[in-house]
Amino acid sequence: MTWSKTAAMVCHGLAILPMLVGGLIYATRDSYLSYHAKATTYVWQELAPGLQILFKAMLNGAGSLMLLTALTLILLLIIPFRQNERWCFWAIPLIGISAMLATIRAAVLVDLNTAANPPWLWLLFVIGLFISGLFLSYKK
pLDDT of 32-61, one tens digit each? Predict the structure, then answer.
């Protein structure tokens, strides 16, 4: 593998890592995070049982989808990317950026309409890593 393909793989791997960690955190949560409490103005224990179930289902579902996306991207990096299949040079960043944009959209909506400050700015860096990986994939 050339240095640029190795660098592309590192960029994609670094971009996938927070997706994997965030997915694991959200997929296994039993309650919401502190910025969720600030957005709702309720601590977890103050929520009615039905709302707790709804929030838990949404958090776990979103986390599971992010985890699935991260695992899919890892599989694409391990097999077709390393085999130099050019279609995955676009597929990896397209899937990753799409997932990040959906996440950013939701976080910005919360940020703009509540007192909460969800951690979304760093996701722009993740998008940058996917874009860098795309360009490095094609560098000769």
Answer: 999 999 999 999 999 999 999 999 999 999
Distance of alpha carbon 74 from alpha carbon 33, whole angstroms = 27
Degrees, nearest 5: CA angle 2-86-14:
60
pTM for the model stands at 0.92
- Provide the number of structural domains found in the chain: 1
Q: 25-32: long-range contacts (C-beta < 8 A, 24 or more apart)? A: 25/63, 26/59, 26/60, 26/62, 26/63, 26/64, 26/66, 27/60, 27/63, 27/64, 27/66, 27/67, 28/60, 28/63, 29/56, 29/59, 29/60, 29/63, 30/56, 31/55, 31/56, 32/59
Quick: pLDDT tens for 80-139: 999 999 999 999 999 999 999 999 999 999 999 999 999 899 999 999 999 999 999 988
User: Which two three-digit tokens encode residue 134?
Assistant: 């795309």
